[in-house]
Design brief:
Blueprint: E1 4-11, H1 15-25, E2 35-43, H2 50-56, E3 62-64, H3 67-71, E4 78-81, H4 88-97, E5 101-104, H5 112-124, E6 130-132, H6 140-151, E7 157-165, H7 182-185, H8 190-204, E8 208-217, E9 222-224, E10 230-232, E11 238-246, E12 255-262, E13 271-278, E14 281-286, E15 292-297, E16 305-309, H9 328-343, H10 358-377, E17 381-382
Parallel strand pairs: 1-2, 1-4, 2-3, 4-5, 5-6, 7-12
Antiparallel strand pairs: 7-13, 8-11, 8-17, 9-10, 11-12, 13-14, 14-15, 15-16
Helix pairs in contact: 1-9, 4-5, 5-10, 8-10
Amino acid sequence: MSKKTVRFGIIGLGLMGREFASNAARWNHLIDQPLQPEIVAICDTNPALFSWYADSLASIAQQTTDYRQLLGNPHVEAVFCAVPHHLHEEIYCAILQAGKHLMGEKPFGIDRQANARILQAVQENPDCFVRCTSEFPFIPAVQRICDRLQAGQFGRIIEANAGFLHSSDLDPNKPINWKRRIETNGEYGCMGDLGMHVCHVPFRAGWQITNVRAVLSNIVRERPDKNGNRVPCETWDNATLLCEARENTAAADTFPLTLKMQRIAPGEKNTWYLEISGTRGAVRFSTKNPKLLKTLDYNGAEQAWQSIDMGNETAYPTHTGAIFEFGFSDSILQMWAAFMAELSGTKPLKPFARCVTPQETAMSHALFTAALRSQQEQQTIRLD
């Protein structure tokens, strides 16, 4: 199948920008993709980051420290934007006003007000295709779980738990960066940084969160700056949200949904997990054992957990055989395949093989704003 090229600019050349660039370079690893990304422009306030991109991608024709120059480039059709949260509103809105398609990093605004203004820009520019990043649901085991959800194989949901845990901030001498400053990361702290990864499947499942009781922790209150001086570190390191949720807006019965986002979780490197229990079945998955999917099907007989060894059984087919292992970079490639497939107008394979929508980012802001209020007032907060 011949592929139409979509010319991309990248604003923000950090880790996720490099991941996108690397996956764009191996796009032919995907099978039967109607569109192919081509990175033609890059932008960052730190020009020292340009060389890796220029050396890696011959297609780059523009390098700039001013995002307005990139947006003024008529050859740029779409933008991947990965900048600190306090810049989301300004730059995302500018991207849309320039008529460019947008893949943006979460949380789509530093707070609920910024998110609302971004969504207003989305509404005002209906010809722009807009999605938010979140790669973990594209892991084969999670896709299998989502197939079960879509088929109603759990029966009535009894309980669900989801979380994203790592220990990157356990060292109190790790220098402070923008994610640990309220003025650049926002009041949400770890929720703004990690929360969409945890909420993606519950939101896409149609679970309506009716209330939340949050316990937020600021564990390391000072960190060294670039000069070695100790400065305040005021953002929330860890968040545990105990929610009541309904399976859909018409359901009368609720179930407990626990969402955990932790930057300081001793023993964890980068662990995403999902557990669902229902009256007819249950599942457990964690990236700590990325090939292992545990399932339980209950039909009135003896209950027994089954262990399934998952391979490269992806939503969007690749040249890698299904028997082989799947990794983090593969989930990034699958996420971008979902973005490009939907941008092309191709009907999505299935609901869970799609990227986060702008409307789902608004749901996350409603939840995280309520969680901040819950922590402040020490009580359960209903979501509006």
